[in-house]
Specification:
Blueprint: H1 2-39, H2 44-72, H3 74-92, H4 98-126, H5 129-160, H6 165-168, H7 170-184, H8 197-220, H9 225-245, H10 261-290, H11 295-323, H12 326-343, H13 352-380, H14 386-421, H15 426-453
């Protein structure tokens, strides 16, 4: 029995390796964007697709891999994800032009989607319900570590080893992760059900079209031909997806999960939380630049957010195991809302410490919210649907990121133009516009608190 207890944490260590790769890679690649414009002699619009294609593919494929994980087994998909991510990273380091870089980032995203969709499923299948929150909290802590060390590691690699190093650094991590996962993660047989290729294809198309519309509509113009086409494609494929899922014997997504209050309100809360979070994380670097902080100082300031998540997430998981998710996640969302409203009170004379403690409060709120919320969603799902539940959480996170960035950009840009139309000085217009965006993000968090409060309080039981 003691050995079995020890093995659980060894298995978690294998999941942590996969969980930390994505955040490190994403933050490093974002830092390298200006470098790519120079190296490949292209413009910012084209280079933005290095990140955009990754986000679109990851978000649109996670539900498919969640379903495949339930059928084929979580270990297989997780291992395939590590291999795909590692091999594509190696090829990325040899990119000869921007088009090769974008195409290989799409393939790398396929591996990332496998990893993200399987991590929570493996943890939930291995840990008993009374330790699930603690384990998910440690996994969340690893993501925070990735986000915290990514910018520093990326700056070092870019300065001393060149841009290819930001990709081939993933290879040894991925190989070690694969060997470790293959050795310690237990096999699970999956369920004897058929895969639904049509539903999977329609889901990919409708979500990719929607995210493309949300993320690029402001650039194209909301009433432009590309925007109208992408929104029309979203509606068509959504209708086809719903019709298909209601007809086939083994649908890709089990709509009966929406009958579970903790699942439905849990993934809704995740969506709202990441909308608020990425409104903040997208806009704050612009604020720091406006206030005159160097890139190095801005990185230190921004680290206060994931640093607090690193400290608080495991503690939040332990409390979730003891008291359930309802009150904790509601309280965490309200703390996040408070931090965002406090961000809206910053002025051009605010010292560095004033920004950091506000971001630290935001990190505390997010840590208190996320781990109990994730634990409740995973704990509410039947054992044969853990892959879909895990993928649903991951999908909502990514969709929330896209919506948050799009909303932040739209509010800030439109309000800045509106204030400047009244001949206000740029610095006053800038601060007013960014404050209004923070307030909207705070409202997202308040709504998140409400959706967290109205769901069931899951403690240590799970529906099998």
């Amino acid at each position: 029995m003691a050995q079995k207890q020890y093995n659980k944490w060894i298995i978690l260590s294998a999941v942590v390796i996969g969980s930390i790769m994505g955040p490190i890679d994403g933050s490093v690649v974002n830092l390298a964007m200006p470098e790519f414009t120079k190296i490949f002699h292209t413009n910012i619009t084209t280079v933005s697709w290095v990140s955009m294609i990754y986000l679109l593919v990851v978000s649109s494929l996670m539900m498919t891999f969640g379903r495949l994980g339930d059928i084929l087994g979580y270990k297989k998909l997780y291992e395939y994800g590590l291999l795909t991510f590692s091999i594509s990273s190696l090829i990325l380091s040899f990119s000869v032009n921007i088009h090769m870089l974008i195409i290989m980032r799409a393939i790398q995203a396929v591996g990332a989607a496998m990893l993200m969709s399987m991590s929570s499923a493996i943890i939930t299948s291995v840990f008993p319900p009374n330790e699930r929150g603690k384990a998910l909290g440690i996994n969340a802590m690893s993501i925070s570590i990735g986000l915290a060390i990514g910018p520093t590691l990326g700056g070092f690699l870019l300065k001393y080893l060149g841009w290819p190093s930001i990709f081939y650094i993933n290879v040894p991590i991925g190989v070690i992760g694969y060997i470790w996962a293959h050795t310690v993660v237990p096999e699970n047989k999956g369920v004897p059900e058929k895969f639904d290729p049509y539903g999977s294809t329609y889901f990919f198309m409708f979500l990719a079209s929607l995210l493309l519309f949300i993320s690029e509509g402001g650039t194209w113009g909301w009433y432009s031909v590309p925007s109208i086409f992408s929104f029309a494609a979203f509606l068509v494929f959504l209708i086809l997806f719903i019709r298909t899922e209601n007809k086939v014997e083994f649908p890709m997504f089990d709509f009966s999960l929406f009958k579970i209050r903790s699942f439905t309100f849990g993934i809704t809360s995740t969506l709202l939380n990441f909308m608020a979070q990425y409104t903040m994380t997208f806009l704050t670097p612009f604020l720091l630049k406006h206030l005159g902080y160097s890139t190095e100082k801005a990185g230190i300031i921004m680290t206060s957010f994931p640093a607090m998540m690193f400290i608080v997430a495991p503690l939040s998981g332990i409390l979730a195991d003891m008291y359930g998710a309802q009150i904790l996640s509601t309280f965490g969302a309200l703390i996040s809302a408070l931090a965002l409203f406090l961000m809206a009170t910053l002025t051009e004379k605010s010292p560095m410490f004033d920004i950091m403690w506000r971001l630290a409060i935001f990190g505390i709120g997010n840590a208190i919210f996320q781990t109990p919320n994730n634990s409740a969603v995973m704990g509410s799902a039947p054992k044969n649907r853990l892959g879909i539940a895990s993928a649903s959480l991951a999908t909502m996170r990514n969709v929330g990121m896209v919506i948050g960035i799009a909303v932040a950009g739209a509010i800030f840009t439109n309000r800045l133009k509106a204030y400047q139309a009244f001949n206000l000085p740029y610095n006053i217009s800038f601060m007013r516009a960014i404050k209004e965006a923070y307030i909207v993000a705070g409202i997202f968090s308040v709504i998140c608190a409400f959706t967290s409060l109205v769901r069931d309080n899951i403690k240590i039981q799970r529906k099998d």
